[in-house]
Design a protein that fits this description.
Blueprint lengths: L2 E2 L21 E8 L4 E3 L9 H5 L7 H15 L3 E5 H6 L14 H11 L7 E5 L10 H4 L5 E5 L1 H9 L8 E4 L7 H15 L3 E4 L3 H9 L5 E6 L13 E2 L9 E8 L2 E10 L4
Parallel strand pairs: 1-11, 2-8, 2-9, 4-5, 4-8, 5-6, 6-7
Antiparallel strand pairs: 3-10, 9-12, 11-12
Helix pairs in contact: 2-4
């Protein structure tokens, strides 16, 4: 039976998450997709923002505001927030923090984390096989932000040559020239054992989510479904998430924002704990 899910409660409520596995974190994801399942495409420039388009283009829309607040709550419950290199290229100002949610929620989330002995900003994890990261972006030059890069041995050589250590970036080498499923599993076991990551919130992109799912370690996904239809023929490199109704996932909760029923909020479970 599918439970009712309130994506934007009037008062802050911590996310209820299963405990971690014995040797790796509980890994959950958070995405927004169009009514017809599109989550992103290859951008042709800064104005071509898939998330903005999928969300309807109005940052003040109640459903979109509920989606952003849900994203912050999910980050606040995590020991680490992760995303792929392409996501960082598309959003060079990105930091997976909780304090910039607006109204009173940001402060509540910071206090919530402090009460659990956690830093204001979760550990940041970036995946890149090649090491092709711009170490000058905000994530790598903001004091007090701890960053771990999961990469290959080849990618690690590239990053060290660019003086990643001077940016206090820690590297997890999970393969020689590529990071395959086994390497991903090992990388998250190291995050668990060496860095205390018990819950990890992955914000994509679609390639990273597919890789985690194929490795069997994407445990659940929170999906915001907008009421916007995206024409796949109008964009190159259109991406969709793994089909959720094909038997590999179970819908465990669903709800709507009271002020904007056009948005649907779903919680799908891949692995049971």
């Amino acid at each position: 039976m599918t439970a009712s899910f309130d994506p934007d409660p009037p008062r802050f409520e911590p996310m209820e998450l299963p405990p971690p596995w014995p040797t790796r974190p509980w890994i959950y994801a958070n995405v927004i997709m169009s009514r017809n399942g599109v989550v992103t495409w290859a951008r042709v420039g800064p104005p071509d923002d898939p998330i903005h388009a999928i969300a309807g283009g109005d940052v003040k829309r109640p459903g979109r505001r509920a989606d952003v607040r849900l994203m912050r709550r999910l980050r606040a419950s995590a020991d680490a927030v992760s995303f792929g290199a392409q996501t960082l290229r598309d959003q060079p100002e990105l930091i997976g923090g909780v304090e910039d949610a607006g109204s009173e929620l940001g402060g509540e989330l910071v206090r919530f984390r402090a009460g659990r002995g956690q830093s204001p900003v979760p550990l940041q994890v970036v995946y890149t096989e090649s090491g092709a990261l711009d170490l000058g972006v905000r994530l790598f030059r903001t004091a007090g932000i701890a960053v771990i890069v999961v990469t290959s041995a080849e990618g690690a050589r590239v990053l060290r040559a660019r003086r990643s250590e001077a940016r206090s970036v820690k590297l997890i080498v999970a393969g020689e020239t590529r990071v395959d499923a086994r390497g991903l599993v090992q990388a998250h076991e190291w995050l668990f054992a060496d860095f205390g990551v018990r819950h990890l919130d992955c914000e994509g992109g679609a390639v990273v989510l597919d890789s985690l799912h194929e490795a069997g370690i994407l445990d659940e996904i929170f999906v915001t479904v907008s009421d916007i239809e995206i024409d796949p023929a109008a964009h190159a490199g259109v991406k969709r998430i793994t089909p959720l109704d094909a038997g590999s996932a179970r819908l465990i909760a669903e709800g709507r924002a009271a002020a904007d029923p056009g948005y649907r909020f779903q919680r799908w479970r891949f692995n049971d704990r």
